[in-house]
Amino acid sequence: MSVAAVSEGENPLVEGLERLPVAPTTLVIFGATGDLAKRKLLPALYNLAHEGALPERFHLVGVSRKEKEHEDYRAECEQAIGQFSRRKPDEDVLKGLLEDIKYVPGEFDEDSVYTELERVLDGFEKNAGEKLNRAFYLSTAPNFFPVIVEKLGEHGLAQHEGTEVRVIIEKPFGTSLQEALELNRRVLDVFEEAQVFRIDHYLGKETVQNMMAFRFANGMFEPLWNRNYIDHVQITAAEDIGIGSRAGYYDHAGALRDLIQNHMLQLLCHVAMEPPVSFTAEEVRNEKVKVLHAIHEPTLQEIPEIAVRAQYAAGHSGGEDVPGYLEEEGVRPGSTTETFAALRLEVDNWRWAGVPFYLRAGKRLARKITEIAVTLKPVPHLAFSQDGSLGVKPNQLVLTLQPNEGVTLQLGAKIPGSRMRIRSVNMEFLYGTSFMSQSPEAYERLIMDAMRGDPTLFTRNDEVEAQWRICDPILQAWSQTPGPRAGGLPQYKAGSHGPSEADDLLLDDHHWRAI
Amino acid sequence: MTSCSMIITGGPSDLMPAVSDAVWSEQGTTPDAIEAALRELLAERHAENGGYVPARVLNMMAFVESQWSGEIANRLRGVGRYHASRLIVLSYDPHRERLDARASVAAEDDPKPGELILLHETVIVEIGERHLDDLLTIADPLVVSDLPTLLWSPHGHPEAVDALLPLAQAMLLDSVDEPAWHEAIDRASALSERVYVVDLAWLRSTPWRERIAATFDPPELRAELGTITAITVRHHPDSTMAAMLLIGWLASRLGWHLDPLIHHGETLSGKANAGHDIALCLEAAPEQQVRGLAGLSIETASGIQLRLDRGMGGLRAHRRDGKGNEREWTILGASRGEAGILGEGIRQALLRDPTYRPALQAAQTMLP
Fold it and tell me: Which band of pLDDT confidence, cut at 50, 70 and 90, is reported for residue A238?
């Protein structure tokens, strides 16, 4: 191999390595003392360090409003990592990670914060003797996103000659279509789209990525994956817990914004997308956007037919009495925020025309489960008598994302005995039984991908906008209907399977799967 | 069950940490009886709690000398979640006449409602010299069909390896275990002709290879790969093989031609050719306590020097640029320890690294 061949081509040394190199990087976390940073980001960074996966030169800067010294922030980081890391920290690695962390205090709209940040970033580079990539992680309340982005731009921090600068933006990306459009405009005034990494942490889960492998690495399913064989699709994200300490966020968001607008529409895209030409970021995201564009914006007249919302009332969960949503601490009196939302959507394209996609998400339901159930059409003719059996049901393929990731195929099978009687049985595959490796936390994968510049698992601006175009009319319609006390918002008992009104969305003889 | 067999639930397994086991044993048994007992144990555990499900990832066959089986048990106990789904230990005592076996189905925890807990199966079959000719027919009924099978024979015994290899898709070895490193290269090379080889000596060098790859990944530094002029690799005195594999890896990836190495006491030296000469030096590091590499240094024609040394909390990096400026820092990463390396070896049986065999072949050309 000649010198020219080495310099012009790919790095010949990466072949066979499981971990690809990441360029030296400084990661700046805005909102560094917040819950997300403590519970997810710092533990994820520690675990990456433990595994030797961080860039060979890695620096971390925390930016937050609280006044504190570097040492105090390091102590907070140590505590958070000790409390929330998925593995017990190795003392030497933890010490190595912590000793270099810097903290910059101040309000996010103060110029002095960015001047100090620039000084810290330059200091790292001077010490390293080389320029370092920069990644700004916005883990703040969403109202700070535009101001931080604009201040970064004003202070010349959105570009850094000879390196890559990236901005990672947490969800929610807007609370309405208008806000999302405005936020995209303000972000893209400062950064190029290729620099922007919008986090939907669901996309970082192995389970979601497995869906692509399931569909596109197995020849047996794809021939059936269309309107000719599939009757309907149900996507469920049920939680058994209430809102806990998140009332401040949740009471302004609700189930549609919290789960359906982002995570569940992404799951729908994974179910309905065409096979991409390649698994590059742009090809995958192009196919997902096509699915979102094929779902038409609901009109005001249609909304009562295709969307249901509800709020949980007092009930029982895990054998305990639990309060209703309006009795939860921090919830506004008379709040009309929905804790359950269900939609019936159609993907109007050649593959899916006429196949209903049912989506439902809620809190304080009977149990925690996230699944996609694909029900096939019944067989055209049944030669067997169904006397004395539970009957032959259409095949159902269920992809469970949590808690036990796996695939279940419901098949008709003969009940042992002298008569030809059929009932449904399950053929089950569980990922946990077939792989040794522990899945990395979604944030570990996403932080690495962002530092590496791979946007495949992040949401592109047109995806976000297309998601909002579907959900925004529904939210607007709901905002105009009266609250629970006026009878405009159905209620369901905590610990139940949701409101009976959700059944009104179902077509033909469809029924919701038991949660 | 036959009258001399016995199932005990709740006892500890000797090969993996478990809160609960179902154990069966029988003297003067047959492979069919062992296999039937395993099926029964699995069914019992599942009936006991539907949350117990058998792991179905990998079979592992270990051929071990019975006097060292405790040490092997200790090593396998440390691999944690990388425990093979079914581990078949063929414990060899040449004087043994009778086939005895113990089987256990172990769970690491009790399942909580709605949770699944994996069951791992372990079979220890006591065999003697008279069973060697029939080894394949003893092991074959015990492997789970359609799962990949990894073979490990840590105490050598090429005759057993030959007998069992038709059942295996991968062979685990530690080429630094061989008393003479040139024999280790020949043995690994011969095996890699027949089966996919997972070499623990190779896996110990993974962080070093990753870091070399990362150092030269920036486009402005990648050209330096073509101008490397000298490499020194320091290694545990018993890990010459690991150093040779690292040089072999660079040579195979960068298209170098290697000359045989020459002994200078504890040091081996030689050269590679890539249109220009590259000085090679392999030094034993007696101070190094653990197997594997102790450090390395790479120099290029433009005066760049990269040095990596084993350190606390990761590798200590030292870089000198073309102008003579020097910098040091730590590349974070926790030591995996020997148990972690063995676990990684088991996991790697399910993957394929296309760079090991070319590295091995390149290392073979360096044999003095």
Answer: very high
Residue B198 in any domain: the answer is no
Residue A479's pLDDT is 87
* pLDDT score of A467 more than 60: yes
Q: Does A55 touch chain B (CB under 8 A)?
A: yes
Q: Please count the residue pairs, one from chain A and one from chain B, whose beta carbons lie less than 8 angstroms apart.
A: 143
Give domain status of residue B185, yes or no: no
Q: Catalytic amino acids of A?
A: 263
Vertex A171 angle, CA A166 and A174, to 5°: 100
Distance CA A62, CA B150 (A): 46
Facing B225 at nearest CB: one of A6, A19, A55: A6
Do B136 and B6 belong to one domain? yes
Strands A422-430, A406-414: pairing is antiparallel
- Which of B53, B57, B325 lies nearest to residue A436, judging by beta carbons? B57
- Domain assignment of residue B180, yes or no: no
Q: Select from B115, B144, B168 the last residue of a domain.
A: B168
Q: The whole model's pTM is what? A: 0.89
B167 touches chain A (CB under 8 A): no
Q: Residues B19, B78: one domain?
A: yes
Same domain, B231 and B127: no
Question: With an 8 Å Cβ cutoff, is B332 touching chain A?
Answer: yes
Whether B119 and B253 map to the same domain: the answer is no
| DSSP 8-class letter at A258 | I
pLDDT tens-digit profile of B47-80? 888 889 899 999 999 999 999 988 898 888 888 8
Find residues 97-116 of chain A whose CB sits inside 8 Å of chain B. 97
State yes or no: cis peptide before A172, omega within 30 of 0: yes
Domain count, chain B: 2
One domain for residues B236 and B356: yes
- Tens of pLDDT, residue by residue over A495-512, are 999 999 999 999 999 999
Pinpoint the alpha helices (H) of chain B: 31-48, 69-77, 135-139, 158-164, 181-194, 200-204, 206-215, 219-222, 240-254, 337-348, 356-364
**Whether B114 and A403 lie within 8 Å, measured CB to CB:** yes
Chain A residues with CB-CB distance to B346 below 8 A: 436
Of A170-184, A371-385, B205-219, the one with minimum mean pLDDT is A371-385
C-alpha torsion angle, residues B33, B34, B38, B43 (rounded to 10):
10
* Contact predicate A184/A191, CB 8 Å: no
Q: Is A143 on the interface with B (CB under 8 A)?
A: no
* CATH code of B250's domain: 3.30.360
Q: What is the ipTM of this complex?
A: 0.89
Is residue B150 located within the same domain as residue B279?
Answer: no
Give the C-alpha separation, B131 to A38, whole Å. 59
**Chain A residues 460-479 within an 8 A CB cutoff of chain B:** none
Domain match, B8 and B156 both: yes
- Are B233 and B347 in a shared domain? yes
Range of the domain at B232: 206-365
B272 domain residue, yes or no? yes
